[in-house]
Amino acid sequence: MFSIHEGITIEKYFIKLKIEKVKELIQNQEYNFTEMGQLLNYSHINHLSRPFKVETGLSLSQYKAEQRKVRNPLDQIVLI
Asked: Is the whole-model pTM more than 0.85?
């Protein structure tokens, strides 16, 4: 039902939510990338970095270094 209504699988939706959380964590500068992955239940940083790059077009390091940090409102995740 979720996929039919929202046009996205629940798995992809949760990945998008996690990517937005990573963006928030990067902006807060409290954790390194490994710690961020652990907070979001990724067993290895590569399991976080791959979907991050697919979704944003940037590596974690590139996003961190970028001056303009764009985040998507959580209530608009499925519209993106």
From this structure: no
